[in-house]
Amino acid sequence: MLCHDSPRTFPPSGSGYSDEERRGWSLFDWENLGVAVSNSYGNVDKDGRKVILTGATGFAKPGEILAIMGPSGCGKSTLLDALAGRLASNARHTGRVLINGRKTRPTYGTMAYMTQEQALTWTLTVKETVYYSAELQLPKLMSKSEKRERADRIIREMGLQDALNTKIGGWGTKGLSGGQKQRLSICLQLLTHPKFLLLDEPTSGLDSAASYHVMNQIAKLTRQYNMTVLAAIHQPSSQVFGLFDNLCLLSSGKTIYFGPTHAANQFFVVNGFPCPSLQSPAEHYLITINTDFDEGLVNGKTCDEKAIELLSESYKSSEIYVGVQHEISVICQQDGDPFVKKGSMQASSITQCLVLVERSFINMYRDIGYYWLRLGIYIALGFAVGTVFSNIGYGFGSLHARISMLMFVSCFLTILAIGGFPSFVEEMKVFQWERLNGHYGVGSFVISHAMSSMPYLLLISLIPGVIAYSLVGLQREPEKFIYFALVLFTSMILVECLMIIVATIVPNLLMGIISGAGTQGLMILSAGFFQLPNDLPNVFWRYPMYYISFHRYALQGLYKNEFEGLKFPEYLGGPPTMDAEMILKDVLQIEMGYSKWTDLGILLGMVFVYRAILFGTIKITEWLKPIIRAFQLSCMSGN
Ligand SMILES: Nc1ncnc2c1ncn2[C@@H]1O[C@H](COP(=O)(O)OP(=O)(O)OP(=O)(O)O)[C@@H](O)[C@H]1O
To answer: Are 554 and 434 members of one domain?
Structure first.
């Protein structure tokens, strides 16, 4: 069996750590950790709970790699999630998790965690992705060239230099392979040399040579920067296995072995499962503890639940387990450094905003579904509106046509923002992943997204606006057209923000599209067109919907803009006796106590309010999640 070059003493010699050793500590320990989920199917107990992990005890130390291994579904990811404080909402954990000997709940940005699901901006190249991430994550005192140097080095170390200018790919565009994406995700996590690095299957999708190179680089950085690394790993080769300091073997949620990698072989020998001479130890352990298949035969012994039970009991009565407990008790007696966020070590908020604006702008430019597709549809609709209402004129019939045309433009064009929803969801996924890993703050995201989308929103409101306005023949004064375009532009900004708020609350694509369309439908219904304002039922529709629907201000502004100054001939042709302002007030029940500019002002004010709501929604969601979880857990334990 291949072992690490310099095996560490285990249990530790002496009873404590020196001050030098404790400086910059990053120490994990967990005792009797159990995880159960509710609302699950399959083997559940009488309370409907399924136990995923039970009695897990262990630790992870700086400068060392702990490998978590076991058959698929044994609870490796669940253990990492529990340690990172990222369990699913239906999961409850028992037992104790300490960081630096203190009970701390890991929050945003306190550790780097590469989950199995990658969230990468698919339109960017490898180089762009790592460069932008370096600018976001690395300290403000570091120069741009130093950041790029580090990014280049990490790209090289992960063997991605040949794919430097390859786009990540997605949505039917093939870019990086699965293994390359995996390595890119590792690059992003390694940029800052984080104190805690959790990797869920870092070598999946990689061939054995690539797996070794990647893990070897991680091992080097682990020793060089004293990082504490935990990696859930499938089927490592002997070479890769030799890089690990400690091993945690799980089977059906039970710990079969936790201790130094080099002592595992002896443990299996003692328990009657010696490793065949030509087999890799890691492979042997995994075959031995896999109970998923009937034919599991190792050295003539069938590996069933009983064998697992035997190994688990044997481990609990072994000296190795005593050693683990001793190590944990030593750790707990130490007064470790408090666990701090890395915020102070990052780029300034202004730099983060500028980098995010640039990155988001490029993504919007390259993702056809973000704006370009909509622009095409808007142009087509601009022509459609222009031809249906062409040369509207000033006859009595034009009164109704004007009202309908303005209604269609202000409501239907904005409702098409739903078309960009898939892109919003993708962007939110990246944001949420980067946020969890503490790459930047919520404020930087909200401001940068608003700024990067402005040019595109101006484009998609102006071009179809010009087409529809000129073909229909609305009032010719430039001031009237500018107002028309400004209302369209502001409405686009608002609807865009509304959809991102929906994507924050409902990140599921289909549910988000339905929720977004439903919300807009309610706003349009209460805008005062389909039912006149005074006829809207007071409860809900008038108060508050009529007052919070931005479509109402857009519609009123557009009506005032178009009708003010016009006179219509009476039906059957006669002298111009119908004053348009009278029509606005008496027929359309428009509030004439203030000018159209006030309507536009309200819309602009709403832009800030909506962005503040987006900021608040993200913050509240982050704040509420642990509270809801705690409430769910107390309900579960009350069962
Ligand atoms: N939130 C959850 N709700 C219901 N079941 C869950 C939940 N989380 C995990 N499980 C179940 O717990 C078991 C362990 O899952 P986990 O993802 O930890 O396994 P794993 O060892 O990481 O597997 P793999 O190696 O295939 O990724 C699986 O059967 C999974 O379906």
So the answer is: yes
Is the CB–ligand 1 distance for residue 77 below 6 Å?
yes
Question: Are residues 92 and 159 both part of a single domain?
Answer: no
Distance 253 CA to ligand 1 centre (A): 10
- Protein residue whose Cα sits closest to atom 18 of ligand 1: 75
* Full strand arrangement of the beta sheet holding 246-251: 112-114, 196-200, 228-232, 64-69, 246-251, 254-260
Distance (Å, rounded) from C-alpha 303 to C-alpha 298? 7
Q: Which domain holds residue 389?
A: 348-634
Mutate to test the pocket of ligand 1, among 40, 41, 52, 636 (most ligand atoms within 8 A of CB): 52
- Residue that is last in its domain, among 143, 167, 190: 190
Q: How far is the CA of 311 from the centre of ligand 1 (A)?
A: 22
303: buried, middle or exposed (CB in 10 Å: 19+, 13-18, 0-12)?
buried
In the block, residue with structure tokens 């500019």: 597
C-alpha pair distances (Å), 448 with each of 58, 158, 313, 394, 611: 42, 30, 55, 45, 11
Measured between alpha carbons, how far apart are the two ends of the chain, in Å? 48
Rounded to whole angstroms, what are the CA distances from 221 to 91, 97, 226?
A: 33, 25, 8
Mutate-to-test residue for ligand 1 from 39, 43, 77, 92, highest number of ligand atoms within 8 A of CB: 77
pLDDT at position 216, please?
A: 95
Q: How far is the CA of 251 from the centre of ligand 1 (A)?
A: 12
The model's pLDDT over 7-49, given as tens digits with 9 standing for 90+, comes to 333 334 444 555 555 555 678 889 999 999 876 555 566 666 7
- The answer to whether residue 226 is domain-embedded is yes
Cβ 155 under 6 angstroms from ligand 1: no
Q: Confidence class of residue 622 from pLDDT cuts 50, 70 and 90?
A: confident
Length of the chain: 639
Please tell me whether residues 200 and 173 are part of one structural domain.
no
pLDDT in tens, 56-92: 999 998 899 999 999 989 999 999 999 988 888 788 8
- Determine whether the shortest distance from the Cβ of 48 to ligand 1 is under 6 A: no
